[in-house]
Amino acid sequence: MTDATTTRPLPPAPGYIKSAFRIFDLSLNEMLWSRRTIFMGLLVGAPVMFALLVRGLVFLGAPIFEQNVVRNGARSTILVPGPMVFGYVMWMLYLTVIVPILGVFYGTSLMADEVEDKTITYLFVRPIRRGAVLIGKYLAYVVCTVFVVLPSVVLVYLLIVPINGTLGGSFIDLLKDLALLALGLAVYGAVFSFIGAKLKRPLLVGLMFIFGWEPAAMAFPGYLKRFTVSYYVQGLVPHAIPNTGVVSAIQNMFREIPSLPTSLFWLALIWFVFLVLGAWVVERREYVLEQ
Fold this sequence. Notes:
This protein is mainly alpha-helical. The protein is 70% helix and 4% strand. The chain has helices at residues 16-32, 35-59, 82-107, 109-116, 120-124, 130-160, 171-198, 202-219, 230-235, 237-240, 245-254, 260-284, and strands spanning 66-71, 74-79. It starts with 15 loop residues before the first helix and ends in a 7-residue tail after the last helix. The relative contact order is 0.13.
């Protein structure tokens, strides 16, 4: 009589979405305690320090929110409202500097860090789709950056807006600003996750994009600005910030601002296309680990 051996069938591989959330759960904790999070904390802490400095100067009686104007030959002093200053901080610091930089440093590293640390093999031998690795790590990036950047914005709002203004009247505008920042982080992250998956030295290309191509394309008239992310992100600013001097400054600088539906449509399209392309590249690219 021969012993019959039975083998249990292997469990089915998890689906694409479930695989992505497994990678998300694995990557989120690593991302929150990485060196990049320290850099992000310093970056988003700069506007908070600025707001604390402004608040302290106002408390000491410094006339930093007063502006001298001449009307009909008579000089008078007007008070600059806090919501206007907050709008400038949102536009000049968060949307123009912080959001693109975080998108570059995190987005380009989603796959590049795994290759550099030679840990990508451990992810690819799991019974999951390769593209789900990028999607999961991208979701971890979005959650990590949003939950660090948005509290910084709220602190700046609470410190600056009450100066010559009220909190209640601009709370809806704050919600719009938070949604705008989250959208900007998501779109920039999708673009640079594709660059990180496709190119060997993605960080350099990303920095050239945000500090070279985008400012140059926005400065020149014509259609070049339509091939940037900042054109559509900053096109949402007049719809998110009250109609103050900030809106006038943006309109005077860019002269051409896309409508709200146009901005939302193109940002959604850019986000979808580059995220899908990034996952497609990861599925098909052979990553060579340097010795």
